[in-house]
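Sharing a chain and its predicted structure for anyone who wants a worked example. Both blocks are below, sequence first, tokens second.
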Amino acid sequence: MTRLSIIVPTFDEAEGIVATLESLAELRRRGHEVIVADGGSSDGTAQLAQGLADRVIAANRGRRWRH
């Protein structure tokens, strides 16, 4: 079986993160992983994601590409 890694980038998404991650619960039950990459939220997003994602990681905010 192919395993997917679903990465959910977040920044101050406390209002909707629980519903978003609950909608991915069936995929987790099937063996896919859900990773929340939080860009420094100050509203508790990362804490709300704990237990609803396989991993919650702190990431830098933004989309800066370095060559």
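Comments welcome. The helical segments are 14-23, 25-29, 45-49.
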